[in-house]
Design brief:
single chain; about 300 residues; alpha/beta; Rossmann fold; two-stranded antiparallel ribbon; 9 helices; Flavoprotein_WrbA-like; FMN_Rdtase-like_dom; NADPH-dependent FMN reductase-like domain-containing protein
Length: about 300
Amino acid sequence: MCFPSKKQGQNLADDQPTQSKSAPTTATNTNAASASAPVQSTQPVESTQPQTSLSATAPAAAPIVSSTAATETTMSSPKVAIVIYTMYGHIGKPPRLHQLPRPSRVELSRPAGRQPSTSAFSGNPLPSTDSDVVGGHCRIAETLPQEVLTKMHAPAKPDYPIFAPADLPKFDAFIFGVPTRYGNFPAQWKAFWDATGGLWMSGALYGKSAGLFISTASLGGGQESTAIAMMSTLAHHGISFVPLGYKNTFAQLTNLDEAHGGSPWGAGTFAGSDSLRKPSALELEIATIQGKTFWEHVSRIKY
């Protein structure tokens, strides 16, 4: 039998301490693993995080729906006035339906079966400004003397009440009927807006809405430039312009089978060189669409 030497025995005996010495290393690694344990313990938290976010977003969706419903219940009461100036009757003459503004009024009148009441309105009977009643037709004052109008063979004015600058704050939205003078709006409209300095200073018209319809003598006589000229005045007052656009009138505005007024800026008509032409059926159709879409737009705004 062979026995290990004393030195070899000691070496063999040292194997146990060596293993025991490596134990702390293993323990250290265990401690490191245990130190990372909190990170592993956060995994359940991370797994529940989507559930928390879902539960958090669920109640948040309810107010959005309810706010939309609230908006829908309050989108039916703007006060709208159709304000015109006309010299030869192309922009408006009551109560014949072949004139431009009338179809717009039919679309704007609501609720069905209810007639606007009358009230004192700058000394003239005009529709009430009650929130459930839509305003009607009115016209701005003439600036030319009757002698000049007679020489110009201008017919009698429509029997609409006079709309003064001081009446503007009483309404939420307007559709302005504007004839053309040399591609611009006429002096009568200029005089009207020049008298609104006090309203401009106080910001009384800020946030209101306006649309336009135009009358010109011929194609290219100001169907668009007249509307563009009005933009400066509307912008200075903070009045938002509501254009007609193409979405609902593409087929009508792009119809090349006949000469017709109207543009994405608003409905329009041609008077002709002798001022005898009346709005065509196509022009009236465009005007009707504008009245309907304008009302739908302003009804979504809280004034």
